[in-house]
Amino acid sequence: MDNKQVIEKFYKSFSAGDAEGMISCYADDATFKDPAFGLINGYDVKKMWRMLLKNPNLKIVSSNISADDKSGSADWVAVYTFSLTGRKVINKVHAQFEFSNGRIIKHTDHFSFWKWAGQAFGLKGYLLGWTSVMKNKVRQQALARLAKFKG
User: Residue 30: what are its φ and ψ, rounded to 5°?
Assistant: First the structure.
């Protein structure tokens, strides 16, 4: 399987709600980074996807998938209900990947935290979503949920 096919499998599994299919695309020591979780690695990456896919309202659409022998990228949109507030979120994400031996070793998701926070938290998010205080609070909550998740 070439690296583009790995990314395609990852997003096909993601859109099907198949955490184990997603996880099979990662090396055991892979790292993941995004504005909500910060940097996590290894087993926590796998646990994060298992936790996030517990949301029954999650819809994923990927596009612009490309890769070469070392790196790749994709765009994807997540539509879901944010569990803490019950608000609908449409998050547009650009993902970058690095590969080794046909597996993802580094995955970085880029999105506007301010736009996400405004959707997830309403007025409070729009007013404070650009601040490090709000980013740090969201990250602390996300990591606390991950630590408690039995996955």
Answer: -65, 155
As a whole number of angstroms, the distance between CA 21 and CA 90 comes to 23
Question: What is the spatial distance between Cα 22 and Cα 20, in angstroms, rounded to a whole number?
Answer: 5
CB atoms within 10 A of CB 7: 23
Count of domains forming the chain: 1
Taking each helix axis from N to C end, the angle separating 132-148 and 113-121, rounded to the nearest 10 degrees, works out to: 70
Q: pTM for the whole thing?
A: 0.94
Mean pLDDT of all residues belonging to the chain:
95
φ/ψ (deg, to 5) at 86: 75, 10
Residue 29 has pLDDT above 90, yes or no: yes
Q: Tell me, what CATH number does 70's domain have?
A: 3.10.450.50
Structural domain for 85, as ranges: 3-148
Joined together, the tokens standing for residue 74 give 């994709």
Helices (H), 16-89: 19-23, 43-52
